[in-house]
Fold this sequence. Notes:
Blueprint: H1 3-6, H2 10-17, H3 21-33, E1 39-40, E2 46-47, H4 50-64, H5 70-84, H6 91-105, H7 108-222
Antiparallel strand pairs: 1-2
Helix pairs in contact: 2-3, 4-5, 4-7, 5-7, 6-7
Amino acid sequence: MNIKQDTMNAEEMAKRLNTTSSNIRKWCIELEKNGYEFIKDNRKKRYYSIIDQALLSNLKYAIQEKKLSLEIAAITVIKGFNRNRSSSGTQEEQFKEEKNNLELSVPQEHANHTINAVLNTMKKQFEQQQSINNKLLGMLDHYKDALEASENRRQLEQEHMTKQLKELEGCLADRISKQINNRDKEMMEYIRLAQQQHLLEIAATQQSEEEHKKGFFARLLGK
């Protein structure tokens, strides 16, 4: 395969996807971490096929539209790509083999027509891959919604529990306040009764002393 003729560089890919070359390189690094391989020259410079374009387009969609992190988005689109990969080799290898066969067996004047038919077939495969990826992204959206709903329920339950605890604390505080007030009243009543009892005892003692004095003078004058 003539790399430069059959592929595009990062700048061309960035224009097609309406993004920056820096994003293209960053996305490719993450895809390579998950086992995807790009075409490279002897200087390790990446070149991109139409298959790579479809994969990068799906990755961009997952990041910018579905708000997934780069790591999660890369895993998602790679899974979708692997489901569509033929057991006999990668789609890039199949395309190479089909093109070589065409060059050997098809007259040159009909080659372009046949290649277009192959590309249309591959386009359908890309659309199927896109559909699978969209389903995966939809599942992720559903999972995110379920997590958000669960978190909202947890927060509501926490708020309800906090409210109940505050109400319980208020009831306990009122009960303790009433118990303290009742104890204070009982204490004051006890002190009042004790004071009355003490006054009665003092009065009785004074009366007894006066009666004793009167009896003494009476006996003295009687003599």
